[in-house]
Amino acid sequence: VGLYKCIPDEDSDSDDDSDDEEKDRPVKLGSRRKYRAAYQKYRKEGPTCPFEVQHSISADKLLPFSVRDALSCSSANNATSDDADQCNKSSRKIRIDSPPLCPSCSRPCMPQSLLFDEGYHSHSYYQFEKIEDWISNYADVMVFVGTSFSVTITDVAVRHAMEKSIPVYNFNLHERVNSSARLNVENIMGDSSETLVELLSMVESIRLNRTLQHE
Predict the structure, then answer these.
(1) By the 8 A CB rule, do 132 and 29 touch?
(2) Which of 69, 80, 174, 215 has most Cβ atoms within 10 angstroms of its Cβ?
(3) CB of 50 within 8 A of CB of 104?
(4) How far is the C-alpha of 147 from the C-alpha of 164, rounded, in Å?
C-alpha cells in the first residue's frame, strides 16, 4: 500500500489494431493513440480528475481522514519515530470503514498498480513507451526474477527475445521456461536472495577484469 489513482471513466484494456501508430513498433505494451487522447483530454478539456491519468496519490493525501490514517500507517516510510511507534501499535490489522477517496474529486481510489482490466497506457505512472524503447533498442539479455510469465509485459518481452535471439535468464523458485530452437533460456532455480547475490558478484568480477584489461 503506497500510491493510489482515481478509477477511470472507462475500460482501458482493449487496443485498436487499426491505428497506424501501432503497426511498426517492434515492442507493443500499450496504445499510444489512447494514451495521447487521454493526455490531450487532460490538458485541454480537463478530465474528471488529474489523478486519473497523470498523477498518483500518496496515502497521506487520501480522504476521509480515518482511511488516510489507517493506510498511511501501512506505508509509513517517512513517518517520524513517534508516528511509527503509534502505527506499529495500531496497524497490525488494517481496517477501514469506507473506500479511500480522491482528495481532488472525491471519487473512490484504487492502488496504483496495473489491474487485469487495464492497459499500460492507462496512466503515465507505468511509462510504457520508455519500457518499449528499452526492450526494443537496448536489451542484449533479459533477466526475469520471480515471475509467473502470465502477464502482458513478460509475454511481450519473451516474444521479442525469440524474434531477436536475445538470451533469457529466469531466476525463479518454481516456474521454469523451456528452451527451444527460437528461445535460449537459462533457468536459475533457488532463493533470489542467494542467486541474485551470486549474479551480482559475477557481474562485478567480469567488470573488474575488463577494466584491468583496458589499463
Answers:
(1) yes
(2) 69
(3) yes
(4) 21
